[in-house]
Design goal:
By secondary structure, this protein is mainly α. Helix content is 54%, strand content 3%. GO terms for molecular function: DNA-3-methyladenine glycosylase activity; metal ion binding.
């Protein structure tokens, strides 16, 4: 089966499980189009921290991540230095991994460069939205699990790396695209599927003013 019936009798994608926090993330956030640069940078960063871990682990720590990384304002994060890194390495509320912390600070500086070139991080990211014709006709659990990365996520990953971003492999980029609404991977029988599709149809894609 592609969906699970929860205690509240709602049919969801089965990965949402039974924890209220995870269900809320699934119901209200995952797959709904995002245009806010800070939220996009947050997701890029947290996907990097997730590497080797579960998203639920990161989700439970997300509020603390937001506190220590100044709401993922790239202007402020890009200014963080060694003292900040040492402070974060001592903070049990986040994932204490030097490489991932350093990557987040580096990526903040790269985001500022992207904003200068394209007008916003959103304009850059949405330029990699895959064409509808490249998507599977039916979004089932098997279909999603069979494509942990796509040509679009490979292209985004390659370009991000060329620009100096780190912890942005094609699988990570596809998870980012799923979460930020560049694709709608809610299963066909999930109650969110139609809602998200309607939001994507009504969504105004940002223009890349730097092009």
């Amino acid at each position: 089966m592609s969906t699970a019936i929860s205690d509240d009798t709602v049919s969801r994608c089965d990965w949402a499980g039974s924890d209220p926090l995870y269900q809320q993330y699934h119901d209200r956030e995952w797959g709904r189009p995002v245009i806010d640069d800070n939220r996009l940078f947050e997701k890029i960063s947290l996907e990097g921290f997730q590497s080797g871990l579960s998203w639920f682990t990161i989700l439970k720590k997300r509020e603390r991540f937001r506190e220590v990384f100044f709401g993922f304002d790239p202007n402020r994060v890009a200014m963080m230095g060694e003292a900040d890194i040492d402070r974060l390495l001592a903070d049990p509320g986040i994932v204490r991994h030097r490489g991932k912390i350093v990557s987040t600070i580096n990526n903040a500086a790269r985001v500022l460069e992207v904003q200068a070139e394209f007008g916003s991080l959103a304009a850059y990211v949405w330029g990699f939205e895959p064409h509808a014709k490249t998507r599977p006709a039916a979004i089932t659990r098997e279909a999603v699990h069979a494509m942990p990365q796509t040509e679009a996520s490979k292209a985004l990953s390659k370009d991000l790396k060329k620009r100096g971003f780190s912890f942005v492999g094609p699988t990570t980029c596809y998870a980012f695209m799923q979460a930020m609404g560049l694709v709608n991977d809610h299963f066909e029988s999930c109650f969110c599927r139609a809602e998200v599709e309607a939001e994507r149809r009504a969504f105004t894609r940002p223009d890349a003013t730097g092009r």
